[in-house]
Specification:
Blueprint (H helix, E strand, L loop, with lengths): L1 H18 L7 H8 L7 H6 L5 H10 L11 E6 L12 H9 L2 E3 L12 E3 L5 E5 L4 E2 L4 E8 L2 E6 L9 H5 L6 H8 L1 E5 L5 E5 L5 E4 L2 E5 H5 L9 E6 L1 H11 L8 H14 L2 E3 L9 E3 L5 E3 L4 E8 L2 E7 L5 H4 L3 E4 L5 E2 L5 E5 L7 E5 L2 E9 L12 E10 L12 E8 L3 E7 L19 E9 L7 E2 L8 E2 L7 E8 L6 E2 L1 E6 L4 E5 L7 E3 L4 E8 L13 E3 L1 E6 L5
Parallel strand pairs: 1-7, 12-17
Antiparallel strand pairs: 1-2, 3-4, 4-5, 6-7, 8-11, 9-10, 12-13, 14-15, 16-17, 18-36, 19-24, 20-21, 21-35, 22-23, 24-34, 25-30, 25-33, 25-36, 26-29, 26-34, 27-28, 29-31, 31-32
Helix pairs in contact: 4-5, 9-10
Length: 560
Amino acid sequence: MKHLRNCILLLSLLLTSLFWQGCNENAWEKRLNGDLNTDKDLYEVLSAKPELSVFVSMLNKTGYSEILKSANTYTVFAPANPAWTGVDTANVDLMRKAVGMMIVYNSYFTDNNALYTQIKAVNTKSIFYDAQQKTFNGAKISSGDIPAANGVVHITDKLIERKENIWDYLTTKTDNQQFVFINKLNTRIMDEEKSIATGVYPDGKTKYDTVWKNINHFLEKYPIDNEDSAYTYLVLDNSNFDLIYTKYKPYFNMGTELRTDSATRFNVCQDFVLSGIVDITKTDSVTNVDGVKISTQNLQITGTYDASNGRVYMVSQIDVRLKNKIRPIRIEGEHYSGSSNSNYVLTRYKRWASGERDIAVSAAEAQSDSLWRKVPLAPDTVVKRDSVATKTYLINSNLVANINNFHIEYTANVNSCNYDVYYVAFDDLADHADNTYTNFGVYDVIQKLFISMPGAKKLTFGISENTRGVENNYLGTSQCFVGKGKAGVRELTKLRQHTLQLPAQTVLEAVPGDAAELLRVNRTGEMTMWLCNTARSNTASRQGLLFLDYILLVPRITEQ
């Protein structure tokens, strides 16, 4: 069977050679013409070379000799005997790790450009080519393109260096705060795929021969331990870590000291994960995987490690500006999470809108305004703006939401800081914006925003029986944020706190003072917002339209 297999492999290789006949001879063809080892597998080819005797003994010791006898195709980087001087070849675990770096799936001859990029060893570790040094993880090919029936051998002057992945390297820094925190996130859980059901307990629950595994939330989100990923990770010295931790902590209040500490440390650790292999010495700033900009102008690099899945920089004197970390939050109108009745919520395609979408609630509102008379009244001869008329503003007169405090719900993950609240609510309906006052006048777009804080009870209805008043608003039931604008005007409107008339919570007066413009968030987490109508009147069927392009929360950050 072995000879049959070798014959099939040889025939395949010969056909490939004939296909390229007439072209320049490649390395494989040259070897076919001058070396008849192609009837032998890789292990046989290696064993026939005295200068590789140490490597062959390591193959036998670690069990890798067997895979080189198989029909699979490999490239072998075989260190010559002198390369093993000083290596602890008696350590089987060490040798297994070392030899696993020297065998690569598929055949890579020296004229194959793919060899000079990044290739994977059978142990899933990466081998990188250094074009300047002409080395593969520190080893140079001294004699290459030695063919076998199932691959090719390259003799090297040194061992292919085994590079640890970023996380494995970080585990050697046992006193570093980034390692200590991330390592503490390991959670031991049952591996359901590997655990075997062995019976049933008296209460009916399944009994398992349990196999346990560790999961780590940080490594799941930022897989710096994954050999198939490529990251750059900046590891801060402990004093630098403490400085950033102290600056971040007020913005990650989670209600208890323990949870606040954990959230703050998580954020410091995550902010120095960069996507891909980044040379931070050639740029003034970098952007991490979450889009946070980090200045690299004044940092000090105290060490560098080229890992199997990227690069590690040991650094100090690095900082993250709070304005880059705690950034404005935009909530698109069409991305609502609930409403009083979705049948009345219209998602509209508008080229002018953010994301080319906004929403409107098909409701109605009656509004009085001073208008120009259509016909002058005697003895006047000119049209005067002195009459008062009432206009009912609609989106669709056949679809009217007769709901007091109709709400559209939005959520946002916020930090524990002060925010200015804005929105764009553009009523673009033509008959709502008669600036000439020839017919009806201009609709006043007045809308309410109720808010419940992270960790608090969510907004709900029920101030009193038979009243759709909003409760659990962080400002209470008689005050909320209000936005005021005019139909036909598209602008960023700043919301401020207003008093409300109970029980319908119609809008009264603006709360005076600068503090009334601030949304004070005392805890990090998910905040809930309700955009509501019933701004002026609780009249049946005339309780107010709603429009929204987006809400914008802008943090007030003071930093020198």
